[in-house]
Amino acid sequence: MRLRRCRFISFVFFTLLWEVRLELTRETWDDAVEGKKVFARFYSAWCSHSQAMRLSWEKLAEAFRDDAKLLIADVNCTGAGKELCDDMGVYSYPTMLYGDWHDLVDYEGGRSYEILKEFADALGPPCSPAAVQHCNQQTRSLIANYTEMGLPILEEFILQKEAAIEQADAEYKVSLQQLEQAHNDLMSRKRAALDKLADFKFRAMKAVRDSRKLKHSGD
């Protein structure tokens, strides 16, 4: 099934909040999802496809509001959740991800409440170091390896990964600033060229031409 999505096309962001849903950001994501199954919608307030499924998603969030094992969440990619969406590599809306909090995959199913509810009901209990019986074999092996690893070494690996993530984010921001500057420079050059070409003489030429054409058509 090819799902309809809106793509990021503007630097102007709009925020629209609804009371029922849990809105997550980069700062709140880890604490909210840890140890749970997650079904998250990454959306844009200006995207018509995001708006079209809003009521179904709100109803789903209400249905699982008090569920201790499954988290239904929203991330506003053109609002407070933009940095989190960038971290997740989400640039089309809505994008829905599901699964264990540390291993989310794309949801490609229907968007009606009935289909979403049936899918959410079928999600099993969360996988975690404290509940490896709910994990697949690959995740079990990773958890076993990291559990046997000395804590200082594990901490060092995590610090290295976090530093690499911060570096990638910093490089992205620098590149974005360079692109914006290049765009501004091109616009300035364009305006200067147009101002030079579309001068008084040019406007006079057009005025005379239009006048002569009008006179000719009246003869």
TrEMBL record:
The answer to whether keyword Repressor applies is no
Q: Does the keyword Signal apply?
A: yes
Q: Which residues form a coiled coil?
A: 165-196
Q: Which InterPro entries match?
A: PDI, Thioredoxin-like_sf, Thioredoxin_domain
GO terms for molecular function, please?
A: protein disulfide isomerase activity
- Where does the secretion signal sit in this chain? 1-22
Kindly state which keywords UniProt assigns to this record, in alphabetical order: Coiled coil, Isomerase, Signal
Q: Where is the Thioredoxin domain?
A: 2-125
User: A cellular component term (GO) from this record?
Assistant: endoplasmic reticulum
Q: Which processes are annotated in GO (biological process)?
A: protein folding
The family note in this entry says: Belongs to the protein disulfide isomerase family.
The name on file for this protein is: Protein disulfide isomerase-like
Q: From which source organism is this entry?
A: Karlodinium veneficum
